[in-house]
Design goal:
The complex is a heterodimer of chains A (153) and B (146). Chain A is an alpha+beta fold and 153 residues long. Chain A is 16% helix and 37% strand. Chain A has a single domain, classed as Roll (Thiol Ester Dehydrase, Chain A). Chain A has four helices and five strands. Chain A has a five-stranded antiparallel beta sheet with strand order 1-3-4-5-2. Chain A is elongated. Chain B has one domain: Roll (Thiol Ester Dehydrase, Chain A), CATH 3.10.129. Chain B contains three helices and five strands; from the N terminus they run βαααββββ. A five-stranded antiparallel beta sheet of chain B has the order 1-3-4-5-2, with helices on one face. In chain B, a hairpin with a 2-residue loop joins β3 and β4. The chains are: A alpha+beta (153), B alpha+beta (146). Chains A and B meet through α1 and β2 of A and α1, α3 and β2 of B. β2 of chain A pairs antiparallel with β2 of chain B.
Amino acid sequence: MPIQDLIGKELPPFEMPIERGKIKEFAEAIGDDNLLYHDPAYAQRSPFGGILPPPTFTATKAFWRTGGTNAEIAGLDNRFVLHGEEEYEYIAPILTGDVLTCKARISDAYEKAGKRGGKMIFVIFEFSFQNQRGEKVLVSRSTAIQTGGVVKD
Amino acid sequence: MEKKVLYFEDVREGDEAPPVVMADITRTQIVKYAGASGDFNPIHHDELYAIRAGNDRVFAMGMMTVGFLSHMITDWVGDGNLRKYRVRFATRVWPGDTVTCKGKVTKKYTADGKNYIEADVFAENQRGEKAVIGAMVAELLSKKGK
């Protein structure tokens, strides 16, 4: 199958609740002691009125999505897949207590010749999140790259 | 604890962000990020698996460093102000590395009555090799109350 045929392929939609405990755990894992992620009283007094997730928190969608990893969905060889790029557009605030719904699809897929020979495959996954009021809050894009073999830095 | 607000008027192109340093990354930190994010690719926590796959040892998920870098950005531009953030992955981060997150303003402008800054951002290791290279756009408050 030509790699371009992946373009437009939809991933199973999923729900993702935004939970205080998960935010604290994630903030600690990135070494961020911002009180807005940890202290409900502080967050309550902030202009946001509650605990916010850090900018890359939607990485935790791994726990909610179904249908396999990006590599599996695109039929890539997981041994040789790298995470090439990641991109976020922040459209509206996300707060603890929100329940997001995510629709995802493959927005682009192409092949390029590798610098050191061989063929490289690029697949871009787009995740579009809306909240329980139907407002679009965040779009993220993730680029997976399949190389010709094990990569050395 | 009140945070210092970064106002649009106080920013100049070329300004640098206060860096955020994550010293001596441990396997424990990597495992914490695995548990928090749900990235259980064994190449990041199972030393034998990582070695058999051709690596010297386990290495950090790229997204962990993207998280470190976001910490630098939100401390700098303020909470809730980030509008766009994109990164690409360059070299890997290994246990024992010290990661320093930096940023530099490349542009400031007003569009549709809103005030924006753009910056190059990156995370580098103790040898000055860039692990994550990216850019961001933030919307800042004006002292004029907008």
